[in-house]
Amino acid sequence: MSFAAYNLAGAPSCNSKDNHWVDFDAERGKGHFVEADGAYLSANPPILYSTYVEMRDGVRLAADVYLPFSIEKEARLWSELQHKQMVIRLAAEKVEASLANGSNREKQKKTEHQQHQKDKHEQQQEQEQGNEHEPQHEQRKLQEQQEETQGNQHEQEQEQEHEHTHEQEDEKELHNNKKQLLSFLRRVEAKLKEEENHLRSTVPKLPVYLEITRYNRRSEHFWPFTLLSIWRHPRGASLNVWSWQTQQFLVANQYAVVVVDTRGSGASFGYRSVDLGEDELLDAEELVQWSRDQWFSSSKIAAGGLSYDGMLGLSIAARGKVDAVLSLFSPIDIMNELVAPGGFFCHSFLNDYTGLTTEFERNGSPWRHMLKSPLQFPFHVLLGFLFSFGGSSGVIGFEAELPLAILSHKKNWKMTEAVSGVQFYDDAVSFGENLKAQPSSFGITPQIMETLAQQKVSLLAVGGFCDSATARGAIRLFSSMQKNAPESRQDLWFMVRRVVPQLILGNWSHGGRRSCDPFGGSFSCFESDLYKTILRFFDCRLKKKCWGGVEEEMPVHYWQTGTAEWREALTFPPRENMKNFDLRLTDKRLSDVQLEEGPEEAFSVRNEGLGSLFEVYRHGLEHTLHDVTQKVQHYANMLELQEEARVSADLLRSASLPSSPAAAATTAAAAATAAADEVASLSSLHAAPKRIHKKERRPSKLSQLLSGLLLAFLPQRQANNERNLKQLFNHDFNAHLMQLPPLPDAAETNAVASKQTVTTTQAAAAAANKRTETAAATSANSSQAAAEAEAAVANSLTAFQAAERSVDYEVEYLSSSGEYSRWPIAQHPFRLFINYGNRLFLKTKQPEFSLSLGVSTDEDKEREPFSFSPFTPSQLLARPLSFLSQPLERDLQMVGSAFLNLFIKAKHCNEISLFAYLEDVDVAAGFSHYVTEAQVLASNRPSEVRDDLPVGSYGRVLRPFSRKSYKPIEEDEEVNVSVNFEPTAWTFKKGHSLRLLLTGSDLENFQLNPAKEVLLPSHWKVLTYSAFLSIPLYDHPSAQQE
């Protein structure tokens, strides 16, 4: 293999072809918007003030308000007016309190005087009764003394009465003065209220964008970095780290932006028992009303944001509180898309997300979590959170209350702890004494989506094909809006463009911070245009100011990888010109079949080399250094894998291993017998030549890193010398042929587009129906020709089935898709790049959890489970099972979700774990590109298998992952492991091959459910006679013209 086999698409340049379909430079020239660049923001800095907003239960939430510089005069007047009103209000409250205290004191004195007179009268009566028993001369003497005493007391009482009268007069005068002062203050207050109403009537009214976040609305900024303008922020002691791009662009274009720390986060008080709980949603409703009542508000409110913020915005919108909602890369089904896709626990997401959010909420900054695994995070991000960015910024004027707010977050729930004991999506999860919920309710449920559609809310949904599994969530949300919103029906689209939902799908990571298009730059040029798209959407929905062709364009735009162009449609995937392209899996090894030669001209893979240094100006030094660091490490790993593959190939050539299926079966049986004799040995579980120990010395890690550094900077335009597909996989005994159907021409595609499925799919589905009661009935044929074709395919399939064709595979449980994948989305906003490398060299990884195998032998004797964790893999190169097609005769444009129909037999196990990957093999370059993937734990049985869905729709096989649908794998059972692949849009070029790769693990990202006892099979028997891979093909009009 040449160096081109390890090309990582070079420098951190942006993918220039994915610029927006709208010419925003021309639109800016027409005056539709202003560019929020550094020059504009320096001359027109946004106005910021912060405050606490008190909720119904007394919990106070921290809110920042950003206003355009154009209303600086009105904002200053409003600020002065608010200050005056606050002073007058406080003075009036004090006067009222003083008046109330004076009245209370007067009542108290009157009561005391009455009590004194009463006590005096009782004392005189007691003295008179006592004098009656004294002698007469003594009585006269006592009487004289009493008269003298009474005279003195009377004089004192007169003096006290005189003083009391004067005090009463003074207090009365003071009371009257206070009443006059209060009356004056009330008049002043009324006058200020009139000024406020006047200012309200004259100030320009602005639509309000409300973002309620859990990721710190604003962070502290440390000296000396406060002397710098970071991300176009004004120099200062705090800055908006999370949503600064949206905030800057909208404020510059006459929107008010309100950013609030949600309950239990940032500088807000309170805690959350669960995400999107009732308290949090009630807070959101009050914040919407508070925003609507503000002096600058036009009463038009938009909500949403990135990730969790978008989910909260959708939940508010479903309650009918906002006019437009923004869902940027927001998960919809939390369990199915993030936490446990396919029934596995996605630990690369769970560990990072829980750690980061916990540190944000309980300590204000995530640097403690980052230092636990510093190599996972970009170096400049670590430096930023250690030395530049601090914790959450307090509310201006209330900074001393920030520690108390953070202290109240200690009771927040932790997702990892809550779901650790979950086995099924319908299990009950406890969040407190009186709060329980099912994991299936986490996120935006179908009920919420249906309610959202009925609220007539304008929706802009943006998703990334490399953003975990959230692209299908965005598609499902958009489709629900189209189906359930009366104004969004497809047949009324041209009449009601302003309320129809919009969907944008690109080849992006979470947040759109990276492009995973292997044929373009690793940054997305669309990222800067995304915020202009948001402005255009809000302008049309909230201001009725539609520009840039927003009223004429289709509601769906998606990026076609390989063709490198934006396309539009009414739905995703499109409904017209679509057809399933079904490839049949066979038991034929590639080494045993005749294959056509590859293209004569080699496809060159480009490496930018030193050009990466010139990207510093565009993307910044920190991003460039980060990319170089990641790519050097990736290059070094790939070089090590290449070296191991070369040594393995040399040993295989010298060993003269059997090439015929019969000889291979004999060898495999002998290896299985040897494995049964030494179950405790890991290496004996893997038949030769799977585990090959190199006798020659490996290159050192330092030399590999130096080689990787050299290759990262040297421009290369080389190609693979082994242009033939058979030569490329000649020494891979797990590589098999995947048979292509006849390629339809454009006319044939148009003639049968309404059928949705091709006859091969129907025939294979019929065979699958014999194995499961849930499979859908085959659809009727639309023409006699199609019926004859189906009959021919069905007869062929029946004959093929009778042979009981299958492939025996020793399962690889140590494989990994790498650390730069679509799944660790908590790191994606930090611009972690997405790159799967050359999939011809799949890497192994040491497992971090227990994995038990049931060993299968020819004697069918059940053996004790073997646990191979912990241990160090004997080699780096994984051995997956793969099926490859012949090189394509023309381009194939895939749009939507592929489907794999597959059954597997296994012994001595209760579970089958399957990871399936669809790849694009560039034969000339010797490079296999990752396209999409699927995974499933097969004990979660399908509830339904459908073939009546539109072509390319996700969900042809439905698995509820419920306790009811769970059934352990039985001995020699034909298990349905059919899966839906994550949706994408990809063009397979002429001369390339399609590759289906199957393996038993992805250790970098997924682990088995720790709450279940799992026993996996050491071998699979893959039933190829009924297996097929269905690719949704779209014949684009331009391709038809060609």
Structure description:
By secondary structure, the chain is α+β, with helices and mostly antiparallel strands. Among the domains are: 46-67 and 206-345 and 391-569, Rossmann fold (3-Layer(aba) Sandwich), CATH 3.40.50.1820; 802-855 and 876-1039, Galactose-binding domain-like (Jelly Rolls). It is 36% helix and 19% strand. The strands form 10 sheets. Strands 19, 20, 21, 26, 28, 29, 30, 33, 34, 36 and 39 form an 11-stranded mixed beta sheet that branches. Strands 2-3-7-4-8-9-14-15-17-18 form a 10-stranded mixed beta sheet, sandwiched between helices. A 3-stranded antiparallel beta sheet has the order 6-5-11. Strand 8, helix 7 and strand 9 (324-328) form a beta-alpha-beta unit. It starts with 13 loop residues before the first strand and ends with a helix.
State the major sheet.
11 strands, mixed
The total beta strand count reads: 39
Output the number of helix runs.
25
Which CATH architecture of the domain at 46-67 and 206-345 and 391-569 is right?
3-Layer(aba) Sandwich
- Secondary-structure-based class equals alpha+beta
CATH superfamily (homologous) name of the domain at 46-67 and 206-345 and 391-569: Alpha/Beta hydrolase fold, catalytic domain
Q: What is the class of the domain at 46-67 and 206-345 and 391-569 in the CATH system?
A: Alpha Beta
Biased composition (Basic and acidic residues): 104-144, 154-176
Keywords: Hydrolase
Organism: Eimeria acervulina
Protein name: X-Pro dipeptidyl-peptidase domain-containing protein, putative
